[in-house]
């Protein structure tokens, strides 16, 4: 998106006539860009596919149609080595990092939820007890105290590129949607016009942070019981699997749709309705819609990346994306839109799948680590409540007790870090002192450091060996969160009228997305941005 700027500077001297001044003036001309001035896009659509590994593009390529993922790649720019440059690779940090252009060390979303070492409570990344649910529930007020809507982005410490757009153009519209609250709220930022997500009854809701009443068109969708319309019959692939949707609806209610591919479809329906009713991209200002498809994550956790269910989910998602692209093209125009698609993290193969193929993996019991460490600390320093919490592979120590015993904080952190190394599933350990006082540019140390927030993170951070998961998953399913490529390597594609077609194999970071969009829009980078614009799509 290039513009032409002509700057003329005339220096006047003395008390001369205008003609004399003009004749003695000095003129400088500076031209930036080309003569072919182009308009900013009218619509930006950010798509995040929750838990999409990079290799899914190629694994399912032959099953995709021509108008979804293939269209994006064939007409857009595909970054094939896009990486999350930090850990932990969870949903909350992933969405925040994509839209803020930085990492948890700066934006503060260090996990989906984390232990607060000041209050002793758990903090949810999008939680806000000062807010209430906004819905069109029975009698309009039954659900107003529900935790489903006690949400806002206030735990995210920096701006998003959506915020930077609205800071100087209040007329631009920004909406975020997802089945998950955090997938809708964090991308839309602090200044969004609205964010919508699905509650435990399968209805679209929002928070009083955004508005006091749902728009009429959202209420109409809720009143039509669309989740029940999708949860009928069977979700099946002949010879592979069959799941009874009617039973699922009876057992789990409307929110059961989240664990089926139809959760993505019903979200796509909402995206199309918002584009239509809010007339996004059809005015003079740039509008932004953020869409996070979550069913891929729910299904991926339950069945794992080797399951037929995940393959069918992506085949169906491909059709949903094709429908979304077609609508964008017809309503706004390919030449007036910029779309990017990526993921908030990948996922590891189930350890039993790896073990069957003689690949190192396993399950571990985190409670054993905590119990063993406490015994070790009692023997070393005397009896006491040394451990406040162990969660998200972070150890939180009792600072008051350590200070009362006059023990060096650095010493006890190093002691605990060394102790954890005896377990075969632990690869590395890092102390808070180490991460605060040193700067790492490369290696896994740097990934841990970019996920470390001095105020919110623990005293010792544990990094697991590849392929190891908590024993919680030993009966089936899998998860993510590590610094390894199966969790950090995700697709990144830009598509739109001003995006040159091609592919790039150099390593780029997820934090580069936000400054890239900011450059295209001509806005300031998000205020905590540590990424760089991608010249392949900005020049």
Question: Care to describe what's here?
Answer:
This protein is an alpha/beta fold and 539 residues long. The chain has two domains: 43-348 and 493-538, Alkaline Phosphatase, subunit A, CATH 3.40.720; 362-473, Gyrase A, domain 2 (2-Layer Sandwich). The chain contains 22 helices and 23 strands. Strands 3, 4, 7, 8, 9, 10, 13, 14, 21, 22 and 23 form an eleven-stranded mixed sheet that branches. A four-stranded antiparallel sheet has the order 16-17-19-18. It has a two-stranded antiparallel sheet with strand order 1-2. Helix 11 (262-277) runs parallel beside helix 13.
Whole-number average pLDDT? Answer: 92
Largest beta-sheet characterization:
11 strands, mixed
Name of the CATH homologous superfamily of the largest domain = Alkaline Phosphatase, subunit A
Number of strands: 23
Q: Class by helix and strand content?
A: alpha/beta
Strand content: 15-25%
- CATH architecture annotation of the largest domain: 3-Layer(aba) Sandwich
- Morphology: globular
CATH topology value of the largest domain: Alkaline Phosphatase, subunit A
Please give the radius of gyration in angstroms: 26 Å
- Number of contiguous helices: 22
CATH class of the largest domain, named: Alpha Beta
Number of domains: 2
User: Helix coverage percent of residues?
Assistant: 25-40%
Distance between the termini: 7 Å
Low-confidence stretches: 1-37, 138-145
């Amino acid at each position: 998106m290039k513009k032409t700027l002509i700057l003329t500077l005339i220096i006047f001297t003395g008390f001369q006539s205008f003609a004399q001044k003009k004749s003695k003036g000095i003129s400088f001309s500076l031209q930036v860009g080309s003569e072919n001035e182009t308009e900013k896009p009218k619509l930006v659509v950010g798509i995040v596919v929750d838990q999409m590994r990079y290799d899914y593009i190629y694994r399912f390529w032959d099953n995709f149609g021509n108008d979804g993922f293939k269209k994006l790649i064939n007409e857009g720019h595909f970054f094939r080595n896009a990486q999350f440059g930090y850990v932990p690779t969870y949903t909350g940090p992933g969405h925040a990092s994509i839209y803020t252009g930085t990492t948890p060390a700066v934006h503060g979303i260090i996990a989906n939820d984390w232990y607060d070492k000041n209050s002793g409570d758990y903090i949810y990344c999008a939680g806000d007890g000062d807010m209430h649910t906004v819905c069109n529930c029975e009698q309009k007020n039954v659900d107003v105290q529900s935790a489903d809507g006690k949400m806002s982005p206030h735990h995210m410490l920096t701006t998003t590129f959506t915020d930077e757009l609205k800071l100087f153009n209040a007329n631009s519209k920004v909406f975020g949607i997802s089945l998950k609250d955090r997938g809708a709220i964090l991308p839309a930022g602090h200044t969004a016009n609205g964010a919508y997500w699905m509650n435990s009854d399968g209805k679209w809701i929002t928070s009083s942070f955004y508005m006091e009443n749902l728009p009429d068109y959202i209420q109409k969708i809720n009143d039509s019981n669309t989740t029940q319309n999708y949860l009928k019959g069977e979700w099946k692939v002949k010879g592979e699997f069959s799941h009874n949707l009617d039973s699922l609806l009876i057992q789990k209610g409307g929110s059961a749709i989240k664990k089926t591919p139809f959760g993505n479809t019903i979200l796509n329906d909402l995206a199309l309705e918002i584009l239509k009713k809010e007339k996004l991209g059809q005015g003079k200002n740039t509008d932004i819609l953020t869409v996070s498809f979550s069913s891929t994550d729910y299904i991926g956790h339950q069945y794992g990346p080797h399951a037929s269910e995940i393959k069918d989910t992506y085949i169906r998602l491909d059709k949903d994306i094709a429908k979304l692209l077609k609508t964008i093209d017809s309503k706004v125009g390919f030449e007036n839109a910029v779309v990017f698609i990526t993921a908030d993290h990948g996922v590891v193969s189930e350890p039993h799948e790896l073990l069957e193929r003689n690949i190192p993996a396993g399950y571990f019991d985190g409670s054993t680590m905590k119990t063993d460490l406490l015994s070790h600390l009692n023997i070393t320093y005397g009896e006491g409540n040394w451990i406040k919490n162990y969660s998200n592979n972070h150890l939180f120590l009792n600072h008051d007790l350590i200070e009362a015993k006059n023990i060096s904080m650095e010493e006890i952190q190093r002691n605990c870090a060394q102790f954890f190394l005896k377990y075969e599933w632990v690869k590395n350990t890092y102390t808070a002192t180490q991460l605060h006082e040193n700067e790492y540019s490369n290696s896994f140390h740097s990934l841990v450091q970019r996920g470390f927030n001095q105020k919110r993170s623990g005293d010792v951070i544990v990094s697991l060996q590849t392929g190891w998961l908590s024993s919680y998953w030993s009966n089936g399913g899998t998860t993510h969160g590590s610094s390894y490529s199966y969790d950090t390597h995700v697709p990144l594609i830009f598509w739109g009228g001003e995006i040159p077609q091609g592919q790039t194999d150099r390593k780029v970071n997820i934090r580069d997305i936000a400054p890239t969009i900011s450059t295209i829009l001509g806005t300031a980078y998000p205020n905590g941005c540590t990424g760089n614009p991608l010249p392949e799509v900005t020049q």
